[in-house]
């Protein structure tokens, strides 16, 4: 495979862009990623967000699914990029431009886990999606810190030292942000993906109060590549936040000629101020970022300017955002980090419900149309308005349903 070998060499040498060629996944014109790399695709879904992470070991995470009208295209692209079910689907927040294509995506390739902030939102589209994932996805979870070590950030290991860490929200340790311009946006799941000295920050549609909360925490926000919040909307991406993130490249996911004026000239200016090389899906099409742990190489489907290489920003090797979010009472430096089993391994840390006092009077509940049952206290139940069946004991529930994977009843 001469062509393949040449592609690998070019990536290693960080030379300019290759034109699309036969080995490229069909619809994008972008080259296939080399094995052993971390690849992030910022998919072109018009006005909305969708990003696919493919780890060096082939673990896959889809962050958001774009608007409903992008569903068919997203599904087709995922079929090209993903073999087997997605290991994790993250819905950053319950807005239509992020959730609209998820049903088509999950139907196309399947998914093992679904995570969303658990922030209550009354829209029918969101309710429908929760019902759908409740039936179609093995495990539905919120990014709650593990009760046994509540100060530790929730981290999902993706193999080869690649880690995806949830920085926000942190319910129930910290309440959801309230009384913001958009509380749904402000409580977007914010994640940091780290590989060697490189990092990606995914901000959903987070708002200035989200940025303030993150700035107050002893968390390393530095990222080589920033997925710009809220499609480049003018309120988010404050100067103080960008100065801490210090992105070398920024990706704005937005639609051609969108009604919102995204991205705003203000945000483009602030990104210039921190000297971030900016990509926009409305102009560049799909953007592909490949990290070897030291350098990230970005290419875009329509980018005439060629590849853009940016090197990692972190000083020490290895992920840095894995430690406690606040000093623990025992305050120690260099304490070893609790490792998360990989998705696909037998267990991920799920928001474990407070352990029920041994079987005394605890009831179990199943939602209409679902094959599983939950503990009555499970937060998944609070998020559905579906009709429910209550079982007086676990034995009764087991006769008709199987235990849910989120609360392990
Ligand atoms: Zn949005
Ligand atoms: Zn939103």
From TrEMBL:
Domain Metallo-beta-lactamase: 47-256
Chain intervals with Basic and acidic residues compositional bias: 396-409
Taxonomy, superkingdom: Bacteria
SUPFAM superfamilies for the chain: Ada DNA repair protein, N-terminal domain (N-Ada 10), Metallo-hydrolase/oxidoreductase
InterPro entries reported in the protein's UniProt record: Ada-like_dom_sf, ComA-like_MBL, Competence_DNA_uptake, Metallo-B-lactamas, RibonucZ/Hydroxyglut_hydro
Annotated Low complexity bias: 301-318
Keywords: Hydrolase, Signal
Signal peptide per UniProt: 1-22
Chain residue ranges for the region called Disordered: 301-409
Single GO term (MF): hydrolase activity
The name this protein goes by in its record: MBL fold metallo-hydrolase
């Amino acid at each position: 495979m001469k062509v393949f070998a040449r592609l690998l060499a070019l990536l290693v040498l960080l030379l300019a862009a290759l034109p699309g060629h036969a080995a490229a996944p069909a619809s994008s014109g972008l080259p296939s990623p080399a094995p052993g790399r971390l690849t992030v695709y910022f998919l072109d879904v018009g006005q909305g967000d969708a990003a696919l992470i493919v780890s060096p070991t082939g673990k896959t995470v889809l962050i958001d699914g774009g608007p409903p009208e992008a569903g068919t295209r997203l599904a087709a692209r995922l079929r090209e990029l993903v073999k087997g079910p997605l290991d994790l689907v993250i819905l950053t927040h319950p807005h239509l431009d992020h959730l609209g294509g998820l049903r088509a995506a999950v139907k196309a390739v399947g998914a093992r886990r679904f995570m969303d902030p658990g922030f209550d939102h009354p829209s029918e589209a969101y309710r429908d999606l929760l019902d759908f994932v409740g039936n179609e996805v093995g495990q539905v979870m919120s990014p709650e810190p593990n009760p046994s070590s509540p100060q530790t950030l929730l981290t999902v290991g993706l193999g080869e030292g690649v880690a995806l860490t949830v920085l926000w929200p942190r319910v129930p340790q910290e309440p959801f942000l309230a009384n913001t311009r958009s509380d749904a946006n402000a409580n977007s799941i914010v994640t940091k993906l780290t590989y060697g000295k490189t990092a990606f920050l995914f901000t959903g549609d987070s708002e200035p109060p989200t940025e303030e909360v993150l700035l107050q925490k002893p968390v390393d926000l530095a990222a080589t590549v920033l997925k710009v919040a809220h499609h480049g909307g003018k309120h988010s991406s404050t100067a103080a936040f960008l100065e801490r993130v210090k992105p070398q490249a920024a990706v704005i996911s937005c639609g051609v000629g969108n009604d919102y004026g995204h991205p705003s000239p203000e945000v483009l200016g602030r990104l210039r101020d921190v000297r971030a090389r900016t990509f926009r899906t409305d102009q560049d099409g799909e953007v592909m970022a490949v990290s070897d742990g030291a350098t990230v190489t970005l290419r875009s489907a329509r980018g005439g300017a060629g590849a853009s290489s940016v090197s990692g920003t972190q000083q020490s090797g290895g992920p840095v955002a894995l430690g406690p979010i606040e000093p623990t009472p025992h305050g120690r430096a260099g304490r070893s980090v609790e490792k998360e089993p990989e998705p696909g391994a037998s267990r991920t840390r799920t928001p474990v419900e407070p352990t029920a006092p041994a079987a005394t009077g605890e009831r179990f509940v199943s939602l209409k149309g679902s094959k599983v049952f939950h503990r009555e206290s499970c937060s998944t139940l609070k998020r559905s308005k579906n009709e429910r069946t209550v079982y007086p004991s676990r034995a009764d529930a087991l006769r008709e349903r199987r235990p849910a994977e989120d609360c392990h009843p």
